[in-house]
Design goal:
The protein is of the alpha/beta class. The chain has two domains: 235 residues, Rossmann fold, CATH 3.40.50; 77 residues, Alpha-Beta Plaits (2-Layer Sandwich). Helix content is 36%, strand content 27%. The strands form three sheets. The protein has a six-stranded mixed β-sheet with strand order 6-7-8-3-9-10, sandwiched between helices. A four-stranded antiparallel β-sheet has the order 2-1-4-5, with helices on one face. Strands 12-13-11-14 form a four-stranded antiparallel β-sheet.
């Protein structure tokens, strides 16, 4: 069931026809979307798409030119709400906002006090975060000596020090090596699940979006082109005939069938096209866009039976379902809007 159709969906962040202009440049153009409480939501798009600007408006660092943003029901346009909103948000900017001349512990203590955490609870909170982020053994070392991955972990801990209900992460794995990026992704996932945080992730990293996000908004040139989970967006694209292809199936044979591709296309139910490779030992089927994943599973079984009836002996069947990269290239690079 789509997240927003569930009866328990409660929006933590609501963007209502949000727009932002810088002089004559329009950075955001009429963005409307809701992020649910406890959800990990991704803003996916290339550099300059408007992702960072959107996050800065949500965190009250920028004012919208038009439209509005509600954070737990509070409008960012009302100056009286900005202190309350800042307490409900933990922000990780693309560059870790930590003081390198301070130790890990001193950084967390400083930001805890800046956010108004009661003094009697600061030490326990800092110790808990250092342990959670695997920094306990380095608590007394200055951050300048930390690796990029360790600095990023400290920056996320800093964003969480005041126990915000909403975590905004702007390119959290940018410039990290593969091992550090994997560690940060695991930490974000654990934080979202254990703390019941709402996480809004801004990224152009497809791996981050695919691994972490419940839903994704594909954004480019300040406009939202599609919203939903990977499977939801794929299904919408099929339904709206955007040029998106249906499921592909590759079937490997021991003995080739002599039936022509044209004849097989007529025999195999639902096949949009049938093609054989040069040695006739592999057949690729492309099913029509209208079929769901479950229907394609059933059609694949029927296709196998049909091929066997023509004399083919089959050694393997592989279904190739659309990846997030396929969706991204089709929607963002091709500017295909899917409502």
């Amino acid at each position: 069931m789509p997240l927003q159709s569930r009866s328990d969906f409660v929006p933590a962040i609501e963007l209502k026809n949000l727009g932002k202009s810088f002089s004559s440049f329009r950075a955001i153009e009429g963005v409307t979307l809701n992020v649910g409480r406890g959800e990990v939501f991704g803003l996916l798009g290339p550099n300059g798409a408007g992702k960072t600007t959107t996050m800065r408006i949500i965190s009250c660092l920028l004012a919208p030119s038009d439209g509005d943003v509600l954070v737990n029901g509070k409008s960012v346009r009302d100056s009286k709400n900005r202190v309350d909103i800042s307490k409900e948000i933990g922000l990780l900017t693309e560059s870790p906002n930590i003081y390198e001349r301070l130790t890990a512990e001193q950084n967390l203590i400083f930001f805890a006090r800046a956010y108004g955490v009661p003094e009697q609870g600061i030490q326990d909170r800092v110790t808990s975060l250092l342990e959670e982020f695997d920094l306990e053994d380095r608590r007394s070392e200055r951050a300048v000596a930390f690796s990029k991955g360790m600095k990023q972990k400290l920056a996320i801990a800093r964003a969480l020090v005041h126990r915000p209900s909403i975590l905004l992460l702007d390119e959290p794995t940018a410039s990290l090596d593969a091992e550090s990026a994997k560690t940060i992704r695991a930490q974000i996932s654990d934080t979202a699940k254990s703390g019941d945080h709402t996480v809004l992730l801004s990224t152009h990293n497809l791996d981050d979006a695919s691994r972490l996000c419940d839903r994704i908004a594909f954004i480019n040139h300040g406009r939202v082109l599609a919203i939903g989970s990977e499977s939801e967006v794929s299904e919408k694209m099929k339904g709206e005939r955007t040029g998106w292809e249906g499921g592909r199936v590759t079937i490997t044979l021991i003995d080739s069938t002599e039936v022509s591709e044209e004849r097989l296309a007529k025999l195999i139910v639902g096949a949009k096209s049938v093609s054989k490779n040069v040695d006739r030992r592999t057949i690729e089927l492309c099913f029509e866009e209208k079929y769901s994943d479950e229907e394609i599973d059933n059609l694949t079984s029927k296709a196998v039976n049909t091929l066997v009836s023509t004399g083919a002996r089959i050694t393997g069947v592989v279904q190739s379902k659309p990846t997030l990269e396929d969706l991204y290239l089709h929607i963002v690079a091709g500017e295909k809007k899917v409502s």
